[in-house]
Amino acid sequence: MAGEPRAAGEAARGAGEPSGIVRCPNCGARNRLRPNAEGIPRCARCQSVLPWITSATEASFDEETHASVPVVVDFWAPWCAPCRMVQPVLERLAGEYAGRLKVVEVNVDEQPRLAQRWQAMSIPMLVVLRDGEELDRIIGALPPAELERRLQPALDAGAQHAGSPT
Ligand SMILES: [Zn+2]
Question: Which of 37, 41, 53, 109 could make an S-S bridge to 94, C-beta 3.0–4.6 Å?
């Protein structure tokens, strides 16, 4: 039960970095992200707030979705073309709203029981969680601007949190 994503999934993702690793937008250092229920991830080298985007297995799902900021769970699969339209938008938002948003990707092929638990029968499916509570559920690929508008309440909620001490 190593929980390591398969190489094929990585290639389909096209992200260039393995799951759980992000490159610091400020200094370029590669950082390994870990579940962090209390705070937000910062670069180990320069302390910049990092885009928070990771993937979850059945074993790590609860830990990964328990975060201090709103979480968008992205149910996807490598064969799903519309999923590949949603993912760059989420990656951009994770960068733009670093410290205010966490994106957790779930590959439904590799995690069928999570897909079943969340009734992800049609993908892409985004579930917006705040303190473990479902705020919204978006099924299908929305155009980028529409998706951002739909996620705005969660992004605003994250902004409120960012101002409070951790
Ligand atoms: Zn850095």
Answer: 53
> Residue 42: helix, strand or coil by DSSP?
strand
**Helices 81-96 and 144-162, axial angle in degrees (round to 10):** 30
Report the SS3 class of residue 147.
helix
| Separation of CA 30 and ligand 1 centre (Å) | 8
- The verdict on whether 80 is a catalytic residue reads yes
Question: Cα of 48 to ligand 1 centre, how many Å?
Answer: 5
Residue 20 Cα to ligand 1 middle (Å)? 16
83 is catalytic: yes
Render pLDDT for 35-78 as a digit per residue (tens, 0 to 9): 888 899 999 999 999 999 999 999 999 999 999 999 999 999 99
Q: Which pLDDT tens digit goes with each residue over 100-135?
A: 999 999 999 999 999 999 999 999 999 999 988 999
Q: Is 116 exposed, middle or buried (0-12, 13-18, 19+ CB in 10 A)?
A: exposed
